[in-house]
Amino acid sequence: MPIYEYRCQSCGRVSSFFVRSIGVDLEPACQHCQSNEMQRRMSSFTLGKTVASVHQNSPSGQPAAGIDYYRDPRNIGRNVEESFSRYGVEIPKPVRESIDAAREGHLPQGIDI
User: Rounded to a whole number, what is the largest CA-CA distance in the chain?
Assistant: First the structure.
């Protein structure tokens, strides 16, 4: 059950359409101005990521030798760091220490593998 996105050529806004099957003929109308002048666009979530493109955004730009992205210790806590940064909030010291320790191979207390 795909969701298709279209950009309106009249007002420039994006509309999303949920369809029950890929084979359904869709005649989209803008959900904002009702225009039928729609151009299909690729949804951002449909863009695949390669390991290389993910590593390109890593702090050093390179993956650790022989380690895939999800096993690369530099990526531990990365989402947490980015979230704090995005909201302009400083990472609390205990959180910073936990992330740094995990990157050095020390699991936080209370976590068993």
Answer: 58
Query: Per the structure, how many domains does the chain have?
Result: 2
Residue type at 111 in one-letter notation: I
Domain span at residue 34? 3-46
Residues 88, 34: Cα–Cα separation, whole Å: 39
Q: Is the pTM of this model over 0.85?
A: no
How far apart, in whole angstroms, are the C-alpha atoms of residue 63 and residue 102? Answer: 17
**Is 66 in the same domain as 25?**
no
Sign of the CA dihedral running 60, 63, 65, 69: positive
Cα separation, 79 vs 64, in Å, equals 18
Residues in a beta bridge with 18: 3
What's the CA gap between 7 and 42, in Å, rounded?
A: 10
More confident residue, 60 or 42: 42
CA angle 109, 57, 51 (to 5 degrees): 85
